[in-house]
From TrEMBL, chain A:
It comes from the Bacteria. One of its GO terms (molecular function) is acyltransferase activity, transferring groups other than amino-acyl groups. Gene3D superfamilies: 3.40.47.10. This is Lipid-transfer protein. Residues 254-379 form the Thiolase C-terminal domain. Pfam families: Thiolase_C_1.
TrEMBL record, chain B:
InterPro entries: ChsH2_C, ChsH2_Znr, NA-bd_OB-fold, Thioester_dehydratase-like. It comes from the Bacteria. This is DNA-binding protein. It holds the Pfam family OB_ChsH2_C. Residues 1-20 are annotated as: Disordered. Residues 31-66 form the ChsH2 rubredoxin-like zinc ribbon domain. Residues 68-135 form the ChsH2 C-terminal OB-fold domain.
């Protein structure tokens, strides 16, 4: 590895996940799921959960660190940080915020967590019931542009138009997630393979997105614990060292009424540039990628902006073979991702990226040394990270 | 007869969120314009740049001297989507419907979202020329919808 000393001197040392349930299928309320995931991550790391003194989350998580620390009887709460903006685009950013706090010495063991019980709190895929729409949604919602799929589909359509892209790359991204989920008994879609025919026959949600281009809705919680590489040496697991992380946005991506200058985009150009610069790596150095599927079209544009292929090469490069562990140059979403493992707002992708470094993924890339996560393409704020052994 | 007329004066069913002007006044002139069936876009008095969606200052030169310039209500389809899955109770059993993102050449290509009137299953061509159809609402601000301009019905993909 040519990178600077791991960017931050911080590593992921603990992973915790609850069972993943279909939407509305959790027997427990959301807060209880979070406590279970945090405790599982501490157990995995080999620390007492009371030693966790920092919490970071994203996407307006409802489970406040003060409540978690209280429920756990923690001795100290030194960090309570919410990433601002971007929904699932804030996933890698929350990890970056944890790393920054650890590097600065604000906390000793920081837990990044996300809990979702959409059965308990209502679904993402349905629109707000407000009778009024005020700037900026007054320029969209009255025209029936209400859901995330409807907000993003025109970016993907324009990208496909600009670069002569057919439906095949979107289908390949969906197939890759379902393919990998068949080796992952924890995946919600385990035992439910997807075929090209099923994909083609599935109903449109909003063109160009079929049903299988859109993420699931699930209940569950996930947590990862970070600490400094010095402390990590004394813990239970092989540390996954955070080489680099970046968050942010491209110019004027939040301009109302779809006026972002670079519209046919995942909004990840600045993030990808800073990420690789910090890591001292390029796309050819990345062994395995977890790229957040809110919608497959966002994965396609994010992969392009992270340098894996040129826009005109999407159809040729983005195939099930090339995305599959064992046959592909770009193993993608190797636990089943948001589409087929679980939609834990992308934190499950961070967990899987760490498993690839530890060597215990259900679809292990042999000798994976570098592992990338790209969170929330097309959101108004996005983030990415690179882990290494 | 346009699609707006066929559906009792509106393209989409009643019950969707109704646009209201920004409570701090950011876009009052825009909605006053559409009520008069005029399209108005922010224009910087200092650097002469166009800006949309509306902001309090010009993003190019930071001038607060922004005017709402009337522009010709014609544009080109920049992107589109056909919505099938109803995500709002008002849309249950309704779809599909067409959404277009329209760029306005008269205002340096700023964009507006609207519905494309006519057959919801029609082929939509990026680059096709469209003109605004102002859709008055009985209980709120006027919407800006779009229809293909007749002279360009047969024009190919120029986007
Ligand atoms: Zn200006």
């Amino acid at each position: 590895m040519t990178g600077r000393t791991a960017g931050s001197g911080v590593a992921v040392v603990g992973l915790g996940e609850t069972e993943y349930y279909r939407h509305g299928g959790s027997p427990h309320p959301e807060f209880r799921l979070v406590l279970d995931a945090v405790r599982a991550a501490a157990e995995d790391a080999g620390i007492d959960p009371r030693e966790i003194d920092g919490y970071c989350s994203f996407s307006d998580d409802r489970n406040a660190p003060t409540r978690i620390a209280t429920a756990l009887g923690a001795r100290d709460l030194a960090l309570s940080t919410m990433q601002w903006g971007g929904g699932g685009g804030g996933g890698a950013a929350a990890v970056a915020n944890a790393a920054a706090a650890l590097a600065a010495g604000y906390a000793r063991y920081v837990c990044v967590f996300r809990g979702l019980a959409q059965g308990q709190f209502g679904r993402f895929g349905t629109a707000s019931t407000s009778p009024h729409a005020e700037w900026p949604s007054s320029y969209e919602a009255p025209y029936g542009v209400l859901s995330a799929a409807q907000l993003f589909a025109m970016r993907v359509r324009r990208f496909m138009h600009d670069h002569g892209v057919t439906q095949e790359p979107l289908r390949a991204i969906a197939l890759a997630s379902y393919h990998h989920a068949q080796q992952n008994p924890r995946a919600v879609m385990y035992g439910r393979p997807l075929t090209p025919e099923l994909y083609d026959r599935s109903r449109w949600i909003v063109e160009p997105f079929h049903l299988f281009d859109c993420c699931q809705e699930n209940d569950g919680a996930a947590a990862v614990i970070l600490t400094t590489t010095n402390r990590a040496r004394h813990l239970r697991q092989r540390p996954a060292i955070l080489m680099a992380a970046a968050q942010g946005a491209d110019p004027r991506q939040s301009a109302a009424a779809h006026n972002a200058p670079d519209y046919a985009s995942a909004n990840t150009r600045n993030v990808a540039r800073r990420l690789y610069a910090m890591a001292g790596l390029g796309p050819r150095d990345i062994d395995v990628v977890q790229s957040y599927e809110n919608f497959t079209g966002g994965v396609m544009m994010s992969l392009v902006e992270h340098g894996f292929c040129e826009p005109e090469e999407c159809v040729e490069y983005m195939t099930l073979d090339n995305f599959s562990v064992g046959t592909g140059k770009c193993p993608l979403n190797t636990s089943g991702g948001n589409l087929a493992e679980c939609y834990m707002h992308g934190l499950g992708l961070v967990v899987e990226a760490v498993r690839q470094i530890r060597g215990n993924s259900p679809n292990q890339v042999p000798d994976a040394e570098t592992s990338m996560v790209c969170s929330g393409p097309m959101a108004e704020l996005v983030s990415s990270l690179i882990l290494r052994r | 007869m346009s699609e707006v007329d066929r559906r009792a004066g509106r393209y989409l069913p009643p019950g969707l969120p109704r646009p209201v002007p920004h409570r701090e006044g950011l876009d009052r002139e825009f909605w006053e314009g559409t009520r008069r069936h005029e399209l108005r876009v922010q224009h910087c008095a200092d650097c002469r740049g166009w800006q949309f969606g509306p902001e309090w200052i010009c993003h190019r030169c930071h001038s607060a001297d922004l005017c709402w310039e009337r522009v010709e209500p014609r544009g080109r389809v920049f992107s589109w989507e056909r919505c099938w899955h109803p995500v709002h109770e008002a849309l249950a059993g309704f779809g599909p419907y067409l959404v277009v993102l329209v760029e306005l050449p008269a205002a340096d290509g700023v964009r507006l979202v609207g519905n494309l009137l006519g057959d919801p299953l029609q082929e939509v061509v990026i680059g096709a020329e469209v003109e605004a159809v102002f859709e008055d609402q009985p209980d709120g601000e006027t919407l800006t919808q779009w229809r293909r301009t007749r002279a360009n019905e047969s024009i190919g993909d120029v986007g």
